[in-house]
Amino acid sequence: METQEQEITQILLDAYDGDEDAANQLWDAVYQELQRIAHRELRGERPGHTLNTTALVHEAYLKLVDHTRITWRNRAHFFSLACRAMRRILVNYARDRNRQKRRTQKHKVPLDEAMVMAEERGEELVALDEALTWLAARDERLGQIVECRYFGGLTTRETAEVIGTSTRTVERDWERARAYLYKTLRLEA
């Protein structure tokens, strides 16, 4: 596992430096992990969501390979940015859907229970994003830890590597962030 992480880090650094072979290898090197992250992100979405795992991966990847805006430090940093990109895509999608729903709510159509639950998921995602945005504005590190751990599925060690702190600090801050988000989201419910 450690060797694979080092290989991906090297490919990322080489691709950023303009190595065309590395840029071509990058997709193959990161695709499976991006699929795993996207699958986990979409697991709680409504049935029939128009963004599938592959579409989410492709859209996030296009945002990530813009070498003019992003400098990757290592594999964990790349996947942290991937989590953030996927989160932004899903939140924007949920906001657009909620806007459309409000515009077309002039006449109500009965929905079965599954569809009602599916609609609530978009609102929950937007509420979580707003709470996380507020948290990150107050304590950027807590926001980064939530993105890495919750959205990215990174381990405590990987999160510590991305943020540049100890695993113990990540564990402590992860507990603080979760407690804050739980309390905030419970009050909004």
Properties at a glance:
single chain, mainly alpha, about 190 residues
Explain what you see.
With 189 residues, the chain is mostly helical. Helix content is 78%, strand content 0%. It has one domain (2-188).
Global outline? globular
Q: Which value, in Å, is the CA radius of gyration?
A: 18 Å
Question: What is the total tally of β strands?
Answer: 0
Total of helices: 8
SSE pattern, N- to C-terminal = HHHHHHHH
Distance between the termini: 41 Å
Question: What is the element layout, followed by pairings?
Answer:
Blueprint (H helix, E strand, L loop, with lengths): L1 H15 L3 H23 L10 H12 L10 H29 L9 H26 L1 H12 L4 H8 L3 H22 L1
Helix pairs in contact: 1-2, 2-3, 2-4, 3-4, 4-5, 4-6, 5-6, 5-8, 6-7, 6-8, 7-8
Summarize the structure.
This protein is mostly helical and 189 residues long.
